Amino acid sequence: MTTTQERAAAPLEDFRRLHPLTPVLRGWRVLAVLFALLLQNSLRSPGALDVLVFLGVGVPVALAYGWLSWRFTRFGVVDGDLTLETGVLFRRSRRVTLARLEAVDVVRPLFARALGLAELRLEVAGAGSTEAALAYLSEPHAHRLRSELLARAAGIDAATPEAPEHVLVRVPLSAVVWSSVLRGPVIAGILWLVLVIAGAMAVGELAALGLVVPLVLGTGGALVTYVMSNFDFTVAESPDGLRLRHGLLETRAQTVAPGRVQAVRVAQPLLWRRRGWVRVDVNVAGYGGGQGSGQSTTLLPVAPRPVALSVLQHVLPGVDIDAVPLAGVPPRARWRAPVQWRQLGVGADERVFVARRGRFFRELMAVPHARTQSVRLTRGPWQRRLGLATVHVDTAAGPVQVEAAHLDATEARQLVEAQARRAQQARAIAVPQRWMTTAQSPPVLEQGQGGRP
Amino acid sequence: MEEAFAPLGENWQPVSPRLRDLRRLLLVAFLVPGALVAVVAVGLGVGWWLGLAVLVVALAVGAWAWWLLERSYRAWGYAERAEDLLVTRGVLIRRLVIVPYGRMQLVDVNAGPLDRRFGIATVQLHTAAAATDATIPGLPPAEAARLRERLAALGEARSAGL
Known about the structure:
Chain A is built from ten helices and 19 strands. By secondary structure, chain A is an alpha+beta fold. The model of chain A is unreliable at 1-10, 290-295 and 431-453 (pLDDT under 50). By secondary structure, chain B is α+β, with helices and mostly antiparallel strands. In chain B, the strands form two sheets. Chain B has a three-stranded antiparallel β-sheet with strand order 1-2-3. In chain B, strands 4-5-6 form a three-stranded antiparallel β-sheet.
């Protein structure tokens, strides 16, 4: 191990290293594998030799590799881009354009927390996975670096101290637990469990209980994961965006800048209705489909509807999605959507496009016109016979897919045209506020410079 | 093309009929050997009367697909407007997509070996949304290159942040 101190105070223009404890955290996985091998081996043929080999060769090799890779990893800001250099044998240098930064997360896995370390994840639009992960930094350093990168991304002085925050919502544990249980799949699982147990008792064949073990493990595991990752979910407001903090063992602190939210969805499962709860999901370009990023596209896992809407006010300033008048679908749509046709609805005001759907699982979705990527109209064979069509408003990847299904075909056609026009106007008047729009032009268009007509 | 998905008044461009020809060639290339094998197998195994029935069915399916390829070719169309590009397609599921030039992230031109043989290429537009489904197959290479250049230039001129 080295005695090099983390040069946190130095300006970012100088290259910096990750925290010197990084190899220990990275190496423990390698050691765990080695240890498992050792255990397996010594069970077969007990002997002190294996232990000696493990301690004498395995541990030093793992530590040496970890130390080397730490030595060869450094990051800094070059010409406004964050540059991350990694790799011992194969050097890799990666540049992240800070002006395109969509979100910054501070993640603290359990073991890192024990050592007071954290991982900083930078999310950039279009990337499937995290664009750049700085693992690991000391916790204060991670937070300082986050505010510094956000400040640079927003175009203000990098030395700006971390913006003060004001807590908007703190989700109580009881709400997280109850909301996780009161969902269709979980209730179905519990019913099934009761049924199988009752059946097994009635027949007297207790071996049948083995059938429910995978179910219990699966559902129970999902419940525990959900509760742990949404534990102490806190939404706070600060000038650089909404700050979300959650997690029991692994904690995560996300910053969602208001202008970077592409679409929102307010959803309400059937069993939450009596309590008036909803959950809010958002599309943020950097998070992509949420692959491997777990809960990171959730803005609020559970909250009373008025609270959720007030939080939405911070994400879509000046928009009240409840105030947008919605038009229903023609009654003949019941032949195509017999259950939910009364709930289907669509509307738009000068800021957002809103669509509603779902009989049991109610969803209300909204896209700001300025965030519309493309507009589509589709019509299947059934819809054709009924004179219906569906309008889709596409946004950057995320859990929210906005569509207004089964509209009257003529109205749908007009709506598509109107929506394309509204989106265009919104783009035209969108003042390039620092956080609201990226200042630079989009990435390379193939041979875009050549043939200007 | 019909009114709702390809309204009159726009300057709708069809795709090249060679797209249809290529797809028909592929249809024949797969259907004929498949049908022959099936007819001979059934004929030898069960009886030639059943083989004949299989042949008739194969012919009917082939004729229907032949006609369907014509319809699907006719369903394709694109129109360049001042601010956006319209693409329409599909027979069973009819689609229309409106892509603003300012939203285009990149433009691809693809042509496989068979496409090149038939003198066609595919232009594909990408936006930040994965759901945007704007692909125009069956363009003559010169038209594909012209469209690409024009879209790229327009996209740059009207580019907007995410």
